Every structure is written in structure tokens, then in C-alpha cells.
Amino acid sequence: MQEVFGMRSGVLLSGVATIALVASGAANAVDLWPDVKLPAAVWSWSGGYIGGNVGGGYGRTSFSNPYGPPIYGGVVDTPMFLAGGQIGYNWQKNSWVFGVELDVSGAVSDGTNTCLASSGFVVSANCTAGPNVFATGTGRVGYTFGPHGHTLAYLKGGVAWQNNRGDVVNNNEFNGRGTQENTSFDYGRVGGIIGLGVEQALTSAWSLKVEYDYLHFGGPSVATPPTVQLPPFAILPANTTSLSSSYHIGTIGLNYHFDADPWGAQPSDEPLFTKATGSAPPTADTAGWSFEGGSRLWLSRGRFQWNDSAVPNEIPAGDPNILVSGSPTTVSTDFPGNYLAGLTARGERF
Predict the structure, then answer these.
(1) Extended strands (E) in the chain
(2) Alpha-carbon gap, residue 75 to 240, rounded angstroms
(3) Cβ neighbours of residue 208 closer than 8 Å, sequence gap 6 or more
């Protein structure tokens, strides 16, 4: 009986020792393999998003001259401010991101210039243009940068649509004693767009982008009013002018990405794998001051418009809107002679 008990005790003790050795070996084996540590938020550009944007730009609408080469260029400059929104979807493959995007913006823009002036003996006109709506449908291809691809640089291209409206108004005819002929246009047109941009992930759901786009549109044929040539006296019949326009636009936008925590932590920059042993504890930040510096470059342009009425305002029956010239006039404040020279250089001859 005692021998049996002794044998069982020996077996039990041997089993306990074996388990202890196995456990000790497993503990030593853990030290040989890295621990898997997931970051607080792993960023991916895949998925849908929606956002808004604001920006500004510079455009030009060109009016062809049916009577000959224009001496004032026939180009209307249209600086603009615009705001709108975008919606899109991305697919990410390794570091490459492919996507589609729709964008609609409203614009505040207006410009005018002398047009249809083939010589100083033809009564010219004032052409105005005002693009007010833009819509684009584009494809995007980009490449991500950084430890976890939080920065996306991309190119885009596709189709664009604009609405443009304006007038072609003759200047002074018969010294204000005749009807001032004019025509108007209001059209939508399909064109093309190419662009590039950089987008930065702010959190797991929000990203900020900066973008530049170039848009180009052909234009319809717009009727021009009949005009006068003098001397020799001749009536130039109504004709047509072909329009074309192009725009350089810069925007800044904010996107919300679906299926993500909108107020979650910023995507982590920590590596996915860290070793359990041999790692030094993080150094705590010390109290103190920090200083940041930077600079800003701002580019703008302006123009002074002088509308020279053909009818003095003192005449009760006169209409000050009948113009001799509406050309943009460069004004110099050095001395009066420069100002008069500017008016002479830009005025029409009848």
C-alpha cells in the first residue's frame, strides 16, 4: 500500500515538474517573439467621403472679332470667388489610391473690356462676361506618403460644365442721337478640367485638401449688334462672335469620410510591431515654451474702369449709359500727364 502510494506520489511530483519546465520554456520563448501592437487608429483612404470647399481664381473670356483683328485684344478678365461642395469615393491598393469625384461650385465673377474694335474708324463695343456656376466630374489617381500614408498627393482630370452670361453693347453711335445696339448671352457649356492637389488626414474621419485646377471651355457663337464705320460712312450689319474661356482656380477643402469615428483620435504614427524587451520607457515632455514662425505670400490684381459717357449728365434727356469708351484705363498718380496719356491710349477713334 505504501509502495503504491509512493509510486503515485512520484508520478504526481514528476508531472508537476514537467508542467513547470514547460511553462518556464514557454515564458522564455515569448521573449524571442515580438508582441503585436495595434495603433489607436489605422488610416485608409478607401471609402466614400463628402465635403466643402472655398477658393478663388482668375479667368479669361475671349470674343473673336468678325470685322478683323481686334486692336484691344477682345479679352475679358474675370477674377472670381467661389464656394461649393464635393462628394467622391476612393479605392486604395497598397500606396496607390484611385477615386472618382463630383464637384459643384457657385462663383461670384464679373469683367468687362472693349471688344469688336478692328480699327479706330469702327464703333466698337463693350463686352462683359460673368461665369457663375461650375460643375466637374473627375477621376483621381494618387500616391500616399508617410509611415501610414496619412498624406495623399493626387492628379485629377475629367469633364467640366460652366454657365456664363454677359452682354455685347455698342459704344456711342451718332453722338448719342441713335439707338445704342446691344445683344446678351446666357449659356451653359461642357469643357475639360485637369488638376492636382495634396490631402492630409487630420483624424480617422476628417481630412484637409489644397487643390489647383485648370478649366477650359469652347463657346457658342453669339450675335453681335450692327455697328457703324466712319469714315467712310458705312453700316456694318449684325454678325456673330465665337466665345472661349479658361480659368485657373485654387481651393481649400475639408472632407468627412464615412464609416469612421468623426471625433476619434488622430491616426497613429507608431509602428505596427514593437518588441516587449529592450525597449526604453518614453521620455516625458518637459514644461517650457515653444515658438513657431511662418510666412504668407498673397497674389492679387486690380483694375480701374472708366466709363466715358457720350451724353453729359446736365442734359435732362440724355442717357449717361451711352458710352464713348468703357475700356479699362491704367491710372498713374505721378503727375496728370500720365493720366491723360492713359486715356488717350485706350480710347476709341470715330
Answers:
(1) 35-36, 47-63, 75-93, 96-109, 111-115, 125-145, 151-170, 182-201, 206-224, 227-229, 234-236, 239-257, 273-274, 308-309, 323-325
(2) 16
(3) 199, 200, 202, 252, 253, 254, 255
H/E stretch holding 18 reads helix 2-30
| C-alpha gyration radius of the chain | 36
Q: What pLDDT is recorded for position 106? A: 97
> What are residue 97's DSSP bridge partners?
92, 142
* Residue 241: other Cβ atoms inside 10 A: 24
Sign of CA dihedral 144, 145, 151, 154: negative
Task: Please name the helix (run of DSSP H) or strand (run of DSSP E) that holds residue 347, with its range, or none.
Answer: none
CA distance 239 to 246: 24
- The CA–CA distances, whole Å, from 332 to 131, 137, 184, 298, 339 equal 30, 45, 33, 23, 6
Q: Three cell numbers at 140? A: 483621381
Q: What is the mean pLDDT of each run of 10 residues along the chain (350 residues)?
A: 46 41 44 47 83 96 90 91 97 95 96 89 90 97 91 97 93 60 90 97 94 94 87 86 95 92 52 40 49 50 51 48 48 33 34
Q: Are 201 and 258 in contact (CB under 8 A)?
A: no
The one-character DSSP state at 157 is E
Determine the Cα–Cα distance for residues 10 and 2; give it in Å rounded to an integer: 12
